[in-house]
């Protein structure tokens, strides 16, 4: 299993950024793909997750209505579209994969991780 993130960077507050997670090594439609984020001061927390077989998505309260998760099942890619970014969104964002959508609630429940992508939002 391999998850490769791309699209991180520096953006001003109020701006937008899209992260991509390209998955390989497993049957894409059997898995839930999600995004977690982590700062040096805090534990890794779930942001959004999508059940790729039907598009059902979950979001944390902190990003709901600002972030949108989507998947391109033909390309085995999941996207995290981030709008109205705030300085507190600054973190390393990790792509995650598991068969259970509940993995968004606890990083310990995640089976597979990407290497992470830095997102920095300036004030």
Could you please describe the fold and organization of this structure?
Helix content is 0%, strand content 51%. The chain has strands at 2-6, 9-12, 17-24, 32-38, 45-51, 56-59, 67-72, 77-82, 91-98, 112-113, 117-122. It contains no helices and eleven strands. By secondary structure, the protein is an all-beta fold. The relative contact order is 0.31. Strands 2, 4, 5, 6, 9, 10 and 11 form a seven-stranded mixed β-sheet that branches. Strands 1-3-8-7 form a four-stranded antiparallel β-sheet, with no helix packed on it. The radius of gyration is 13 Å and the shape is globular.
Could you give a quick summary of the protein structure above?
With 123 residues, the chain is mostly beta strands. The protein has strands at 2-6, 9-12, 17-24, 32-38, 45-51, 56-59, 67-72, 77-82, 91-98, 112-113, 117-122. A hairpin with a 4-residue loop joins strand 5 and strand 6 (56-59).
Would you spell out the secondary-structure blueprint of this structure?
Elements lengths: L1 E5 L2 E4 L4 E8 L7 E7 L6 E7 L4 E4 L7 E6 L4 E6 L8 E8 L13 E2 L3 E6 L1
Parallel strand pairs: 2-11
Antiparallel strand pairs: 1-3, 3-8, 4-5, 4-9, 5-6, 7-8, 9-10, 9-11
Mean pLDDT: 96
Segments where pLDDT lies below 50 for 5+ residues? none
Query: Treating each run of at least 4 consecutive H or I residues as one helix, how many helices?
Result: 0
Gap between N and C termini, in Å? 37 Å
Shape type: globular
Give the helix level as a range of percent. under 10%
How big is the Rg? 13 Å
Q: How much strand?
A: over 45%
Number of strands: 11
Class inferred from helices and paired strands: mainly beta
Note the main sheet.
Answer: 7 strands, mixed
Query: Would you list the SSEs in sequence order as H and E?
Result: EEEEEEEEEEE
């Amino acid at each position: 299993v391999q998850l490769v993130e791309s699209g991180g960077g520096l953006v001003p507050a109020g701006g937008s950024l899209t992260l991509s997670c390209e998955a390989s090594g497993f049957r894409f439609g059997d898995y839930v793909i999600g995004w977690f984020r982590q700062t040096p001061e805090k534990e890794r927390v779930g942001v959004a997750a999508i059940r790729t077989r039907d598009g059902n998505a979950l979001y944390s309260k902190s990003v709901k209505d600002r972030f949108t998760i989507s998947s391109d099942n033909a390309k085995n890619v999941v996207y995290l579209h981030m709008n109205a970014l705030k300085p507190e969104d600054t973190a390393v964002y990790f792509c995650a994969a598991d068969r259970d959508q509940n993995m968004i609630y606890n990083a310990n429940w995640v089976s597979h991780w990407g290497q992470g992508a830095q997102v920095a939002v300036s004030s």
